[in-house]
Amino acid sequence: MSTDYDVIVIGAGNAGLAAAATLQRGGQRTLLLERHNVPGGAATTFVRGRFEFEVSLHQLGGMGGPAPLRQVLDEMDVTRRVEFIEDDQLYRTVVPGVLDVTLPADWARITEVLDSHYPGQRPALTSFLELVRDVGLWQLTARGNLHRIDAEIERLTGMKHVRRHGLRPFREVLDEFFTDERLKFVLSSYWSYNGQLPSRMSFMDFARILALFVETKPYQVVGGSQALSYGMLESFLQAGGEARFHTAVERIVTRGGRAVGVLLEDGQTVSCRVVVSNAPATTTYTRLLDPAEVPSAVLRDLGSRRMGVSATALYLGLDAPAAELGFATAANFIHTDLSEETVARGMRSLEPAPFILASCYDVKPNGCAPPGATQLNLITLQYTDPWDAVPAEEYQRAKQVYAESMLELLKTVAPGVRDVIEEAEIATPITMKRYLSQPGGAIYGFDQDVTDGWLFHDDDLKPNVPGVVLVSNWVTAGGYNSTIVTAARMCRRLLAVL
Ligand SMILES: Cc1cc2nc3c(=O)[nH]c(=O)nc-3n(C[C@H](O)[C@H](O)[C@H](O)COP(=O)(O)OP(=O)(O)OC[C@H]3O[C@@H](n4cnc5c(N)ncnc54)[C@H](O)[C@@H]3O)c2cc1C
């Protein structure tokens, strides 16, 4: 039977764009539908005055050398449309009066730097980082080979140390190797890229993130993440794809239990053979589809998951060069103290920000601030509950008070910032919920901690409802590398059966 399109992709976030470009370039007539007026989902920017502010991208992994994201973007013909900049350093971690350490993106040099700050740790550091590399690279490969995950798990039988440590809490493994709390703290800085504190995060998730950034180096995008989103959209359109913006999908239409099209907000129905949904898994299975058509095991599994963490962000446009303000590193993790409890409390309350990631986009300018000026984004992780509890009439004031606490913490490394603020915009988990349409304002999908994660949900990526495929950070790890690579690889496999 003829259909309007072969495939309809709901949503033009990272995963939806990668899916649409891969399918159209693979010869499938593809329609991309996005409720907003621009592509990207979280991978977007907004303009205030002379600045174009980055919403989500702090560091891009997977780009250095023959890395997974670069390969996928090459296959989609995106790399020649977008310019990428390699960061010089991995990150700087600061606890005022306690530590201030900058790590390079190189295994041997990380050992050197940490051994110079905390002497006598070289043997432990060498074996710890070898373990991180092995576990991290296994996970990165296994995730890219989800179509043959059984073989990947089989491969683990020959990797005893990966099996032994992979699913342990990251904190427990750290404690086994090191005693110096400052050294452990510096090594843990990337916990926030998974949204889980070291005691809750599985060692394999930490290893995946550190291995990704050391092996493939951290990158920035010229023009910000919006330029990357437009690059993927252009690749899709040039291959003959059709995109409609300001177009929300109301329902996935099924016949005999199989998806046959979508119903748009304006009442129009469009038919297709396969629907790829970039909407959250909960939305797709319980709102876009009739839950009665979804296997009960899938609904039970969804019911067992926890909403992931959201974020509060302060976007600053500064009328001074980055170097003058004291920034020599793009990613700066600044904490009030070494305590994990302080951070855990801060994630669930409106107490002064216990930590910020200060991302400076003008150490090597990405073109989103005017020459001589600096874009600085401060972000801290928070669940949405404490913000939901703020009465509407107090919300503006609560935002101001919270932003002040972030600026106080920033002052400890960059005292001059407050005097040169030209633009300031604050976004809370409520803002994330509203603009990103993510349940709970979650920025990485479901909480993935030591008790839960992709290895426990091998059904996520299967077509649980015939004709419906899910792509997003709700079915893989959060982050640009994961969402783009997983969606593109899944859709390449889909091409083989379409
Ligand atoms: C503040 C913040 C900081 C972050 N920092 C980093 C970082 O430094 N590095 C990193 O790698 N990752 C980072 N991330 C995570 C990363 O941005 C996300 O994991 C990723 O962008 C999610 O992509 P996605 O395609 O899964 O979903 P989304 O970006 O949420 O896209 C989903 C799209 O589907 C559309 N949609 C949904 N339902 C419908 C419908 N019914 N009809 C039509 N359209 C629909 C939405 O409008 C949206 O455009 C950050 C995220 C945030 C928010």
TrEMBL record:
<keyword id="KW-0274">FAD</keyword>
<keyword id="KW-0732">Signal</keyword>
<dbReference type="Pfam" id="PF01593">
    <property type="entry name" value="Amino_oxidase"/>
</dbReference>
<dbReference type="InterPro" id="IPR052206">
    <property type="entry name" value="Retinol_saturase"/>
</dbReference>
<protein>
    <submittedName>
        <fullName>NAD(P)/FAD-dependent oxidoreductase</fullName>
    </submittedName>
</protein>
<dbReference type="GO" id="GO:0016491">
    <property type="term" value="F:oxidoreductase activity"/>
</dbReference>
<keyword id="KW-0520">NAD</keyword>
<keyword id="KW-0285">Flavoprotein</keyword>
<dbReference type="InterPro" id="IPR036188">
    <property type="entry name" value="FAD/NAD-bd_sf"/>
</dbReference>
<keyword id="KW-0521">NADP</keyword>
<feature type="domain" description="Amine oxidase">
    <location>
        <begin position="15"/>
        <end position="494"/>
    </location>
</feature>
<dbReference type="InterPro" id="IPR002937">
    <property type="entry name" value="Amino_oxidase"/>
</dbReference>
